[in-house]
Design goal:
Blueprint lengths: L6 E5 L7 H8 L3 H6 L1 E6 L1 H10 L7 E3 L11 E4 L14 H19 L5 E4 L4 H4 L9 H9 L6 E5 L4 E4 L6 H4 L5 H17 L7 E5 L14 H15 L3 E6 L1 H6 L8 E4 L2 H12 L4 E5 L4 E5 L16 H23 L22
Parallel strand pairs: 1-2, 1-5, 2-4, 3-4, 5-12, 7-10, 8-9, 8-10
Antiparallel strand pairs: 6-7, 6-11, 11-12
Helix pairs in contact: 8-9
């Protein structure tokens, strides 16, 4: 691992959004290409169009396959050589098709060992729907394609906090029906393992949020806390996991209680992410935990409202690359640390002198 340049696969996302803008702005700094070997799965014509329209100067070098990628530059593998109709801020099916081609080629290279980590630019989920992509987001697609039977956990992270979700892209009316004690326990377990192996936190402290206002007021406005969430917390504590709660989300974030924990588990998407994005500004990163692949993305979407205007802030995308590199290294260190565990040495209880005998 020492001295290895990590090969970062990058998908270009929806080309009518801000994906190319944040990618090209990120790699305008030579330092980024010194830290890793970036391989962008994209459209050379779309990239050139964005670069010209946004008056950017970032260069990229075309390669045929990942093994041709060189250090010190942004490498690009073409997944679509034709002209792409780009109408900034307006989704269309062709953009969805090109985004899917990028993702498919990156996953193919990951499966073949040609890239080490994956960083994805934002997609428009609706325009990507097809026979090859019948998922509500990257997380679910990756779980299906490269999960190897493991369950994914969405974590939004910044230097301020790490927020994970029990349910992700669900309508609010379906959240309660999708909460079970077993599911919450599973998410806590994945979260705890990730905090240890991916972020080197030896004994993580995890806060678990309630579902209902005021934790249900002892069942007056909801019973999920006492019937599902609290039993899950108690069960995991008996297994040695340091998890606490449930906490009502408004007071938890409003009073700054989040600063006392290494991780926060929210019951549904907006419960955790509204507070996260309000407090984390442009530093947020979306990290997919629980899977063999290391995948990150910026914490924002396609941002159609500012697409093509040169106003996009690339810091979240840059942070996504940093996190991917850090997590990959942390996982290698974790694997090495547990590769050759010490054997348990039996003790002979029958010695009269009371000394232990090593067999």
């Amino acid at each position: 691992m020492e001295g290895k340049k990590i090969r970062v696969g990058i998908t270009h996302g929806d080309v009518s959004g801000i994906g190319y803008e944040v990618i090209l702005k990120t790699f305008a700094y030579p330092m980024m290409c010194e830290m890793c070997i970036p391989i962008l799965y994209g459209s050379p014509k779309a990239a050139t169009y964005h670069r010209k329209m946004l008056n950017l100067t970032t260069n990229f070098a075309m390669i045929n396959q990942a093994s041709d990628a060189q250090e010190g530059r942004l490498n690009m593998i073409s997944v679509y050589d034709e002209e792409v109709k780009i109408d900034f801020g307006t989704p269309n099916l062709e953009c969805g098709k090109v985004a899917m081609l990028s993702l498919e080629r990156a996953i193919k290279d990951y499966k073949e060992g040609n890239i080490d980590v994956l960083v994805t630019a934002p997609i428009n989920k609706a325009s990507m729907q097809s026979s090859n992509f019948n998922f509500v987001g990257h997380t679910e697609y990756l779980e299906h394609e490269v999960g190897e039977g493991n369950e994914a956990l969405m974590i939004l992270m910044s230097p301020m906090m790490k927020v994970a979700l029990v349910t992700t892209h669900l309508p609010i009316k379906e959240v309660s029906a999708n909460l079970t004690q077993a599911k919450i326990e599973k998410k806590i377990d994945i979260f705890n393992t990730s905090l240890k192996s991916d972020f080197t936190i030896s004994i993580p402290r995890i806060a678990v949020l309630s579902l209902n206002p005021h934790c249900g007021d002892n069942g007056l406005i909801g019973s999920e806390e006492k019937d599902i969430i609290k039993p899950a917390i108690d069960s995991m504590r008996k297994r040695g996991v340091q998890c606490f709660g449930p906490y009502p989300a408004d007071g938890f974030f409003g009073a700054g209680v989040y600063s006392s924990f290494d991780g926060i588990l929210a019951m549904y998407h907006d419960q955790g992410l509204t507070a996260f994005k309000t407090l984390s500004a442009d530093d947020g990163v979306n990290f997919t935990a629980g899977l063999p692949i290391v995948r990150t993305s910026p914490d924002h979407g396609v941002a159609y409202d500012i697409a093509g205007k040169g106003e996009a802030n690339e810091n979240s995308f840059r942070q996504a690359i940093y996190v991917a590199l850090d997590v990959w290294r942390n996982r290698q260190i974790d694997k090495e640390a547990y590769a050759n565990p010490l054997k348990i040495i039996p003790r002979d209880k029958g010695r009269k002198d009371g000394r232990e005998q090593i067999e």
